[in-house]
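Lab meeting, action items carried over

1. Structure of the two-component assembly. Owner: GW. Status: complete.
Input record:
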Amino acid sequence: MINIIKNNKRLILICMILFVLGFTTITQYQKESKIAMTYYEKTYKECQEGLLEDNICIRYTEPLKKRDSVSTFGYITLVYNNINVLQIIAPLLIIFVALGKFHSYLRKGVLKNSMTRIGYKKCMQKMYIRAVMNVLILPIFLLILFIISCIISGNFDYMNGIKQYGFDAFGMENAKNWILFLGVYLLNFILHSIFWIHIGLYNCKHNKNGIIAIIVSYIEYLMIFIIFELVFSNTIFYGTQYMEYFCLSNIWAYSNVTLEGVTMFSFMLAFLSGLVVYIAYKDKEKVLVEIEK
Amino acid sequence: MKYIIINDIHYLWQNKKKLILMYLLIYISYFLLGTMINGYGESEYFMNNVFGFHFYFPEFYQDILKASFLLLNYSFYLYLNLSLLIKDMDNFDYLFSRIKVSKWISIKLIPCFLIAFILNTILFLIGLLFGTIDFSFYLVIIKKIIVILIATMCLYILFMLNQKTKLLFWGLCFLFLSTLLFIPINLIKTKLIVFLGIWIFIKVILFVIGSFIKFSDLKA
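Predicted assembly:
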């Protein structure tokens, strides 16, 4: 048991952070929605009894239904600061977990020892798969949040959510079919996590220290994010339908984008970054020289 | 002493050249492209966000681009400074037989200052060239350089305590994180003397800790 905890301490730390963020947000949402519901019901009752003026009662013509699951999920992930901050720190968390073992295997001689038994290619594949397995952290966390949202709301009437609450989280077209939406939503997180991990893996080759590799990977991600936003989104494609695709944090909100478009873009990111990692680690001699420096 | 400084600057230019150029390129692209659209050119947005003169963690979620700029502004320098420190760990035995920890740390701060000073001055000149700012802006740049140095010294304190006393290390980590998370820091409104005071205070702490720590502790 202690060994399992020791071997996965980074993963456990990240899970704890995500748990705290998720738990505090859901509690806050429940508290606020209870207050809003009580207020609505009270006003609705007073309107029915004719105690309030007509201009107030226009908005209270029918009893309030609970917000639907997709809207609740969108509200939790996009409105509250706790989860919102993940938009900026999620890459750091994923890189932090994924690079732990990969970097130590690469730098502390495990690669060299393994090469004598199973060969360079197979060894690298094993290390790569182990690192990339961490792409599931965010999708699992979001899936749990979605299940909790389903339990809280208990309905899937997205149109009613927009009509009564005036909150369109992911766009009407995108969220029409919630099963398809959820699948694409989680797939995009997997693809983006692969992209983040690829940045980290690339930097492991050039940095002796694990912490330095993580920090430089995150700095590079921030640089890519800013360049995409400034150069592509706000200049080259400004005013066109493609401008929102280049905003890397749009996988959280899906504002003015289609599901297919975002998926294609995420796939391209994961593929191109994968290509860079493949080229970086293709030559066994170069990698060995680099890690021995 | 001068060889350590020259060696550090040479190391940064040899190994971090691409990253430094990329960092400058981001700001040039901001001045060239970002200032024309979306109100990114407004002086308040520019001062607070692009140069990172005002940071308060609970406001991060409001604008992801702003948060990215802020994080980049400080993490970039901390990364360079930390890599300078870790670089010397590889040549431990040769270096530390001749020099004390406190002196070594003090010398390390000079290239840190130089790199922050040179890069920020370049950014200031680029801003001046594109007509977004005036000369009075440089005072805030000086405050920013001092803040970077303070953050670097805090990082160095943590680095030294990491191997020696874990309890103090985690306590200080908690203190620094909570300062960053919950206290808004505004470089424009806060006076220069305040930052200088904090700088001197942390420098003294760094010197005291440096005097009590041996190189064998760091190596462990």
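2. GW to write a short summary for the group page. Key points so far: Residues 101-129 of chain B form the longest helix (29 residues). Chain B has a mean pLDDT of 81.
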